[in-house]
Amino acid sequence: MFLQDDTPKLLYFGDSETCHMTGLLVVDGIVDFLAGDPVFTGLLVLMLLFVFFAYLLVRRTLLGLREGYDDARKR
Question: Any transmembrane segments, and where (predicted)?
């Protein structure tokens, strides 16, 4: 049904529908892999949550530091 196309996608200027179908196959493969390995999926979610909360912590720290400098400068 689908033809395997081994040409690099950045240099491929063929039919856009073929590239779109290939992209869907890649997404299906990723979803199948994540659904088939719940331990890896859990670790991936935990790492993403850690990065998100670390970003929020650093942002809050820097905004508080800036607010402290601004308050000290007004006095």
Answer: 39-58
